[in-house]
């Protein structure tokens, strides 16, 4: 799972929010894979079998050979067309980052992506927001947590909102507790707020100017604490040993 930076109080609430956000992001990423197939795979190179139109709603794991797709140079061309790849990124690294991000979202543990993966995720979110604006029927930027989970989270968020209003009455003078609570829920349900929920900072945007390896070797990056971990090393949550990790890399 992707490590999130804005979370509700309570372990159960956190699990609900993590599942909702990660599943939504995975659906966005998988839709990009289907877009790629529609645009570039006219010879059905990646289809696992001959399918009928009804099969299109199945998961990309069922439909396509993702390992072969990851190796194919055409996917980088798609990433360029969709503005998913940093300007400085090598083709192979950009494609690997896309599919590594997908595996990260599927994992049970929480992980921080590397810079290129963060860039890809941010670009996917941006594209989806554009789609929501241009095609309202696509589902909208706000997708609520399904019930009964939403009510469970909202109950505690209402308490948090009441505390915020009591602590800073001038700031929330014109807002009801219920309105404050819905604003807080927006961090988990409104895709437009995911830039705050899913990212610690926006260092990854520098990849359009300087590649990750060069950035890692600069005093500038070190002084700012920019996350420039090696491509195959993931920052693991405290207390989680390598042998206990379920991350499928």
Ordered list of secondary-structure elements with their pairings:
Layout: H1 11-40, H2 60-63, H3 66-71, H4 74-81, H5 91-106, H6 115-134, H7 149-167, H8 177-189, H9 194-197, H10 212-216, H11 219-224
Helix pairs in contact: 1-6, 1-7, 4-5, 5-6, 7-8
Describe the structure.
The protein has 249 residues and is an all-alpha fold. The protein has one domain (11-142, 190-237). 53% of the residues lie in helices and 0% in strands. The chain has eleven helices and no strands. It has helices spanning 11-40, 60-63, 66-71, 74-81, 91-106, 115-134, 149-167, 177-189, 194-197, 212-216, 219-224. Helix 1 (11-40) crosses helix 6 (115-134). The longest helix has 30 residues, at 11-40. The chain is globular. Mean pLDDT is 85; it is low at 230-249.
Sheet of most strands: none
Order of helices and strands, N to C?
A: HHHHHHHHHHH
What share of residues are in beta strands?
under 5%
- Alpha carbon gyration radius: 20 Å
Number of domains: 1
Structural class: mainly alpha
- Between the first and last Cα atoms, what is the distance in angstroms? 13 Å
- The percent range for helix content is 40-55%
Helices, by number, come to 11
> How many distinct beta strands?
0
Q: Average pLDDT value? A: 85
- Global morphology: globular
Low-confidence stretches: 230-249
Features:
single chain, mainly alpha, 11 helices, globular
In short:
The chain has 249 residues and is an all-alpha fold. It contains eleven helices and no strands.
């Amino acid at each position: 799972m992707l490590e999130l930076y804005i979370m509700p109080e309570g372990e159960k609430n956190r699990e609900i929010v993590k599942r909702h956000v990660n599943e939504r992001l995975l659906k966005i990423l998988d839709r990009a894979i289907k877009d790629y197939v529609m645009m570039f795979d006219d010879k059905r190179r990646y289809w696992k079998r001959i399918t009928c139109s009804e099969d299109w709603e199945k998961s990309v794991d069922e439909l396509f050979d993702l390992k072969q797709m990851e190796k194919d140079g055409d996917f980088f061309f798609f990433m360029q067309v969709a503005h998913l790849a940093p300007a400085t990124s090598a083709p192979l690294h950009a494609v690997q980052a896309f599919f590594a991000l997908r595996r990260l979202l599927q994992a049970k543990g929480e992980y921080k992506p590397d810079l290129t993966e963060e860039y890809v995720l941010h670009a996917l979110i941006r594209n989806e927001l554009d789609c929501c604006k241009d095609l309202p029927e696509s589902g909208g930027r706000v997708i609520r947590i399904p019930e009964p989970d939403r009510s469970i989270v909202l109950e505690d968020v209402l308490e948090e909102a009441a505390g915020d209003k009591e602590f800073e009455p001038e700031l929330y003078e014109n807002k009801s507790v219920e309105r404050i609570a819905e604003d807080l829920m927006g961090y988990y349900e409104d895709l437009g707020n995911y830039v705050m929920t899913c990212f610690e900072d926006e260092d990854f945007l520098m990849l359009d100017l300087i590649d990750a390896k060069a950035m890692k070797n600069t005093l500038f990056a070190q002084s700012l604490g920019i996350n420039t971990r090696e491509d195959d090393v993931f920052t693991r949550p405290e207390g989680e040993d390598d042998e206990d990790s379920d991350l499928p890399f």
